[in-house]
Amino acid sequence: MTTEPGPLGRDSAAPSAPAHQGRVPLTKEPTEPEPPHHTAPPAKSAAGDRDGRRSSHRPWSARRLPAALVASVILVAAGAALIDVVAVRAGRRAATWRRHLADELATRPVDDVWMLTGAAVAAAVGLWLIVLALSPGLRHQLPLRSPAGCPPPRLRAALDRDGAAVLLRDAALRVPGVAAARVRVRRHRVKARADVRFRDPQEVKNDLAAVLGEERDRLALGRPPRVVVRVRRRTP
Description:
By secondary structure, the protein is of the alpha+beta class. The chain has five helices and seven strands, in the order E-H-H-H-E-E-E-H-E-E-H-E.
């Protein structure tokens, strides 16, 4: 007779695991450290980078007025010539102004005064247009520095010179001893004139230069101008 195996009790041992099953370690085995990830070094900052910011160029002007003037002159001249050519093709006589202009251009020598004057005017206008095309314009705007991490197209901003002058003047008036201040902001220089009512003028000048320098740096200009301070004692 064979006896059937009874149910396992609480105190009975569990069946042993098969031989092909591995044991899970209770402690984490040390693993080889991963090689450090080397990131590409940041690109070399351009000249004028300060405090992790990039210098920004001055925004370009749209040149709407010069473009409108030149386009208007060309449109009027071309339209008048085209209308006269169409009239001639239709069997009418050429306009008086066009016949007179053709005769003058055919008979006058090259060294004539009017010819030289017209050539000089045309050359001046062409040179003016070239300068406008190659220069950014907006000389009244001071470009601000853009954040270094800003992806292209980068954020660009500009500050008006008059606004910068007002901020610097308010900072100058907070210096003890300054009764009045006048500040003019240019592209490469900030001129500050102050009237001193009390304190030593040299001490006021040093404090004023330091305060204006801090306020200029706080404006985050792309190309910070140099601060020039002049003081004079004002008697009551």
